[in-house]
């Protein structure tokens, strides 16, 4: 089914319903108690500065109600205040950078240079990165990221370079995603998931679990175990697909069809609500699969290895945190959004 056919079918339905959340199978997310009003305000000010927003402006209010730092507070509930603030800034940057790299007003050459500069910054080479970026506004943002990473490095054990390498892959895939959007390529589901499991930005966030908690799993080769790889794959797909479910309306309005909803509609030649129901079912199946894999880890004895269950539980918390935050954030629902109690609802296209 061509993208124009999907557009006409979705337009005819005009609305869709997301069924009640099924993530009761997962551990309920709890906020990091150290992420207080002071920390939240610091992240909001940082975001305003990054985007050069006037406090109180519509865009500034939107960013504040998007509560980007809150995701970090849910996803890393046990780390110290000194860690949670730079982690929250990094996660906020992930979202803001994604928006910037999708901005059609920025030239393709500037975009390529910024993506390359970001990669250099993750390798600690800001001086070289600065030579690439001619746009002074973009350069200022690159410098702000560099300062966040310096702060984060004080608390992160990453001897193998897992965090840095995974972020390089994310930025590489952002460029591929941009090319697909420009050419209106509609991939099959497997190809889409190959892209999405990277562009979701989950891999560096899982690397932070190991590095911030200083579990040493990467150095001890534990992450190569098939059951741990399976946990990471399930967690990544759950986070990416749940985000697609929540963010569909926003992305569709922008003409971004690289989302599992239109991909499923294209594959199954079905309408909007049927595709939404399929995606919600896939998310629920991933939760069941995660619980089963977690039990395998426990029964196999792998759970006895130091740090393994801290990591597995951390992935589960990330899955639940992403689902919780997605329903709270104005990023996907607009200013003034009031989250529904049942985490379900009907939305107009």
TrEMBL record:
Keyword Nucleotide-binding: no
Cofactor(s) listed in the protein's UniProt record: Mg(2+)
GO terms for biological process, alphabetical: isoprenoid biosynthetic process
Enzyme class, first EC level, given as a word: lyase
Enzyme Commission number, as recorded: 4.2.3.-
Residue runs in coiled coils: none
Keywords: Lyase, Magnesium, Metal-binding
GO molecular function: metal ion binding; terpene synthase activity
Keyword Acyltransferase: no
PANTHER family linked to this entry: BETA-PINACENE SYNTHASE-RELATED, TERPENE SYNTHASE
Family per similarity comment: Belongs to the terpene synthase family.
Protein name: Terpene synthase
